[in-house]
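User: I'll paste a sequence; please echo it back and then give the predicted structure.

Assistant: Echoing your sequence first, then the prediction.
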Amino acid sequence: MSGSGPEPNRRAPTPVRWQLRHYRWPLALLLAALLLWLLGLLHQPLPDSSGWPRVSGSHQADRADANAAAATPMPAAAALADQAAFTQSKRALPASLRGSTPDGAVTLDASGRLRPSIELRRLFDYFLSAIGELDLAAIRTHLLDTVAATEPPALTAEVAALFDRYVDYQAELAQQAVGFGALPADRLAGTMALRRRFFDAATVTAFFGAEEADAQATLRRLEIGHDPALTSAQREQRWRELEQSLPPELQAQARETTSAVLIEEQSRQFEQLGIAAAQRHRERSAAFGRAAADRLAVLDQQRADWEARRAEYQRVRAAILADAGLGPAERAAGIEQWLQQHFSASEQRRVRALEPFE
């Protein structure tokens, strides 16, 4: 593979600065949320990936024959037949992909050869999301038909070879991930080593570079959070320094991840302490800006209204169920009637979903 070129520029979201005011947020909750997020990031196998076939023996030879055929110029009649097959293939797309636009793209270097990129990985993942509806052979056919519609046969063969390697990597990851260990650092190290067995350095950087940098930063953030020698101010300073050391596109993401957890934790603190709406707005304006504080105030009111209505439903439901003069059918009908009078259809589904936990 040739070296990776510069990725397309993306505008980073405006950074949100967090300033601790009168509260010290329970650190354990923040760290637990970050840990759960990291564990999900380190190993995200595609659906049913443990059952994917490995590339070996005659299956690999079949792929080589197919790729060689793809690189051979076709006469006009064969080209027309191929176009008809492509049209038929499009009709056979699974329901989950039908009518959608493929995510990602085939990217080229300056010489016109395939350049690994995160866009290409997204294209692979888009088609692989149909696992469970189609087998791998059909998914591969749909991918290559899509590429062949706009790219020459030689480039389509390059895409096929890299896709096959990516599928083999996913299958191996599903099999070996359990052996990487339970600690996030060990899982990250095992995943990174496996990627380097399957791909060259340029492809690893293009496909997984940002993800690995983000995971490593999250591990470091957890280490800082667990360091008992640091004061709250020192911990905040270390986190800011860590964010500033990241690539620009990850700095904004790191701030958003931390801020989202802190906003939720701040809201819980406000509820527990019974903080008045005016003081909540001042605290949030100082930390996240006036516009964010306004939006959060609206959410507070919506949440309070919802909780009040749900509490009233619980009271009415308990009274109906306790009424000895009603039979089972009458109780069910009474509860259903009250629900329909006081909640929308979507709200009724939410209420019923919460009942087993009450």
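DSSP finds 14 helices and no strands in the chain. The two ends are 57 Å apart (CA to CA).
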